[in-house]
Design brief:
By secondary structure, the chain is of the alpha+beta class. It has helices at about 1-40, 55-65, 105-120, 150-155, 160-180, 235-240, 245-260, 265-270, 275-285, 295-300, 300-315, 325-335; strands at about 55, 70-75, 80-85, 90-95, 125-130, 140, 185, 195, 205, 210-215. A hairpin with a 6-residue loop joins strand 5 and strand 6. The chain is globular. The relative contact order is 0.10. The model is unreliable at about 1-20 and about 45-50 (pLDDT under 50).
């Protein structure tokens, strides 16, 4: 009886030890990959490296009350988002709880973590830290009170002034990504679902899962697989699989048309319809104003609408070389708001 009990206790201890080793292995592997990605992105500049906090799996489990479904504020293919409090701070915890390791998902989460570690901008969602002890790392972000732009734009009424400000905010963030480091970082996933609003309707760019660092003018040894949201993806990128900053410029142009018309690019794409093609056709037929949202017609001046449309059409030009840079886009949005004179 005593021998049996001793064997049972040893078995339990071994199980616990195996679990502990698994956490250690995840931590070492994920931490190493994260560091490599961070160095590759920052080109040795180590920008923002001191801002990361590492949470244990117990910290996350405690904060989410063992992943209580009542704390869920969003779900997608990229994970479940929990709203909670950590260190007396309201945060969201982004977790993808997979039983088996998924290299692709791990890479996406670590790409997102490394991007927001290296880049720090007021119009990018603030990253507080992550847990590396789980198979797929868990990410912790600031909590913003106004949900995402898609939900607000297509569920409520957003004023024209707020739409214009959000467009400028996201243009700033993309301009920063393209110019802050020695090599541009391309987002590749710009859409209204990946823009979070705060209580003042300021826009913050999120969802950096597909961000990549590129060398301008250099053809990569391997092509990047096409990533992004249908309806927003640059057709030239789909054709060539070459990633440039102009991929983001195109997606931003689609976002501008979405803000202007309140049409849903993703839903239209699922039905085989392209918002850009429809809008360009309307412009050519001199019936563009029929597509403009009534709120915009009521609140914007005709000159503001014309300038906004002209800029959006430049952004969605067929060839990337014909599109403006995001720095140029910011300047044009300033002009529309009259801020260039101040």
């Amino acid at each position: 009886m005593g021998q049996t009990q001793t064997k049972y206790i040893k078995k339990i201890k071994n199980k616990r030890r195996a679990k502990f080793d698994c956490k250690e292995e995840y931590f070492i592997k994920n931490g190493g990959i994260l560091l490599e990605k961070q160095i590759a992105l920052s080109q040795g500049q180590h920008k923002g490296a001191g801002q990361l906090k590492i949470f244990s799996s117990q910290d996350i489990a405690k904060a989410t009350n063992n992943y209580d479904p009542d704390l869920i504020v969003g779900t997608s293919a990229y994970g479940t988002v929990y709203k909670t409090t950590i260190d007396d701070r309201m945060v969201v915890v982004k977790a993808l709880l997979e039983r088996e390791p998924n290299p692709e998902q791990i890479d996406l989460f670590l790409t997102e973590a490394s991007t927001v570690m290296v880049m720090n901008h007021d119009n990018m969602v603030k990253f507080y830290g992550c847990c590396l002890e789980t198979c797929i790392p868990i990410l912790v972000y600031e909590y913003l009170s106004n949900a995402d732009l898609f939900e607000r734009l297509h569920g409520d009424v957003i004023k024209w002034a707020d739409r214009l400000r959000v467009a400028t905010d996201i243009a700033y963030a993309l301009s920063y990504m393209h110019n802050a480091l020695s090599k541009p970082v391309v987002h590749r996933h710009v859409n209204s679902m990946g823009i979070i609003l705060d209580y003042s309707f300021n826009g913050k760019l999120a969802d950096f899962l597909y961000s990549v660092s590129i060398t301008p003018g250099e053809t990569p040894a391997t092509r990047w697989p096409v990533e992004g949201t249908p309806g927003y993806i640059d057709p030239e990128y789909i054709e060539t699989q070459e990633v440039t900053e102009k991929c983001d410029v195109y997606s931003f142009g689609v976002l501008m048309l979405e803000l202007l018309t309140r049409k849903q690019p993703l839903m239209m794409a699922r039905g085989g319809i392209d918002l850009v093609d429809v809008f360009v056709s309307a412009v050519q037929k001199n019936c563009m104003m029929e597509m403009v949202d009534t709120v915009v017609l009521e609140q914007a001046t005709m000159n503001e609408i014309r300038q906004f449309v002209q800029l959006a059409l430049m952004c969605v030009a067929k060839k990337g070389t014909e599109r403006p840079t995001m720095v140029d886009v910011v300047g044009e949005l300033w002009k529309i708001q009259g801020r260039d004179k101040k």
